[in-house]
């Protein structure tokens, strides 16, 4: 129906016409069975990467060593991966090598969970050797094969299990969960960036609280940086992963910078979090027009949401932030009727830090309706200030 599926179907059709077998696999099939919109519709095929490249005019090598070729068709780009099995895992992260195979069954066997190991043919029929459809029906996350072995191979799968359980509001099958409890220490082998990517998805999940509870119950929190404070996540829900990081930061107290930085957040993300936390702190004494001026609507809304989660509703202003911001006497510093040069001219004093401080003072006075944004009025106000 949607564009991504159309593109995938057209790729499969062309591979079949060239005599190969191709199917849709992974998250797209799972999400279709759950009636959730898919983001990436991935194709798997028995054609070797070189063979895939001969079938299509436009391709990009994006991971040829893992057998993945990006195929560009009119409906869009599609990732096409050759059926493969994984070689030996020696570092709890990734296989030493991969082997291309011609059997779909073997390809599905290397996948992490039964719900992710279902393939769909172009005619809409499913290839499901591991009971994935039934598990989806029962909303269960179950490892393909021997759970403990699968987590020992690739420790990230433990975090994926829990992230999926939060994302989809699924339970983790008992044996699979017990296997995570056995292997938690292996998380130390996983790069921070990959852990961050999983937490990004957990924060926007259907039940973040459920996810954090499982992180704690499994013992994984002991191998993750920061204090998760499970009880504090009750009812937390967002569409913006950065809000999850900001709330996580709030729970770290003074150590938030080091903790959040450890997950490799960018300077821009850190700056947003810093603003939200400062605005949140300022809520205790109530926000004034200065706060509505200096913080963005998004930052104030985040701080307000956190106050609500922590039952500090009493502090939350009654009016909408947007309305309060729209009513400010000025919206931007550029709208000030005077500038630093005016101050120097009027005072006859030498430049210095006082100029900036003085501009700040008069801005505050204007924001608080103690002074009008008018050159003459500001001039006399400044003279008045100098006298006192
Ligand atoms: P999402 O909705 O988060 O994208 P997804 O299932 O598509 O979920 P991806 O990370 O995009 O997850 O991976 C695509 C597929 O590749 C998975 O559905 C699964 O079959 C397989 N896969 C991904 N990561 C692993 C892993 N670490 N171990 C085994 N199989 C994996
Ligand atoms: Mg995906």
From TrEMBL:
Matches recorded under InterPro entries: Bact_CCA-adding_enz_type3_sf (IPR050264), CCA-adding_enz_C (IPR032810), CCA-adding_enz_firmicutes (IPR023068), NT_sf (IPR043519), PolA_pol_head_dom (IPR002646), PolyA_RNA-bd (IPR032828)
Binding, ATP: 27, 30, 111, 154, 157, 160, 163
Keyword terms, alphabetized: ATP-binding, Magnesium, Metal-binding, Nucleotide-binding, Nucleotidyltransferase, RNA repair, RNA-binding, Transferase, tRNA processing
Reaction catalysis annotation: a tRNA precursor + 2 CTP + ATP = a tRNA with a 3' CCA end + 3 diphosphate; a tRNA with a 3' CCA end + 2 CTP + ATP = a tRNA with a 3' CCACCA end + 3 diphosphate
Keyword Nucleotidyltransferase: yes
A Pfam cross-reference name: PolyA_pol_RNAbd
Cofactor: Mg(2+)
Sequence ranges assigned to domain CCA-adding enzyme C-terminal in this UniProt record: 242-381
Residues annotated for Mg(2+) binding in this entry: 40, 42
Residues the record lists as binding CTP: 27, 30, 111, 154, 157, 160, 163
Record-listed E.C. numbers: 2.7.7.72
Every tRNA nucleotidyltransferase/poly(A) polymerase RNA and SrmB- binding domain range: 169-224
MF (Gene Ontology): CCA tRNA nucleotidyltransferase activity
Chain ranges of the Poly A polymerase head domain: 23-142
Miscellaneous remark of the record: A single active site specifically recognizes both ATP and CTP and is responsible for their addition.
Family of this protein: Belongs to the tRNA nucleotidyltransferase/poly(A) polymerase family. Bacterial CCA-adding enzyme type 3 subfamily.
Subunit structure: Homodimer.
NCBIfam families: PRK13299.1
Function, as annotated: Catalyzes the addition and repair of the essential 3'-terminal CCA sequence in tRNAs without using a nucleic acid template. Adds these three nucleotides in the order of C, C, and A to the tRNA nucleotide-73, using CTP and ATP as substrates and producing inorganic pyrophosphate. tRNA 3'-terminal CCA addition is required both for tRNA processing and repair. Also involved in tRNA surveillance by mediating tandem CCA addition to generate a CCACCA at the 3' terminus of unstable tRNAs. While stable tRNAs receive only 3'-terminal CCA, unstable tRNAs are marked with CCACCA and rapidly degraded.
Name of the protein described by the UniProt record: CCA-adding enzyme
Gene coding for it: cca
